[in-house]
Give the backbone structure.
Amino acid sequence: MPDRSRILVVDDEEVMRELVSSMLESEGYSVIAAGGGAQALETIAKGRPDLVLLDLNMPGVSGWEVIARLNDQPSPPPIVAMSGMGVEEPPELRGLSAFVYGYLPKPFGVTELVRTCARVLEATRRPPNPIGHERRREPRRSLLVPATLLSSEGTPAAVGQILNLSTGGAEFDIGATLHPGTELRLCFDIPGGHGPFLVTGRVQWKKDGRLGLQFLEVPEADRERLTELLGGPHGG
């Protein structure tokens, strides 16, 4: 059955709006479009969409300003930012708002677009999977971060994506099954995190290619950086 989630596409370029809308509609999504930030805010006020694809650099009310204004709302919709500024996510974007879930650098293809939207919609629809009762109060957030699975020699073995992260563990999508109890090493980077993180974790659960990881070894400096990035108090 097609996913009838309602997605708002915001871009001042008409061709880009129509192209992205067409890509999403072909996948069964219900799509509405806005030609600028002011129109986007009006549309959201009339009915919260399930997801917003938001161009950052627009004349008038920019995407940055849209995010700032949505910060004042009690339940802003999840946002995936779009921009032609470069492949790397702007460092200031990740720490700006908890409801910004991803970044799509222009140009992007239909596979990348649809995959990103599906991941964010799934992450925002389901409650986080607890990896341990003692971690439920830890600061955590849903986000899309590429992560590299390392071999025992420390060389890259596979690339996946972190979907949910806390100081004590993560939900890791690698598209393959590893049995609970398996220990593995991950390397990942969070924009604004001032360098990569290297952690050792143990698989706690598996489902549809996703793995629930409990972190076994996190250097203290990295744990403090994670706590700061996730918005919790130090030292937990």
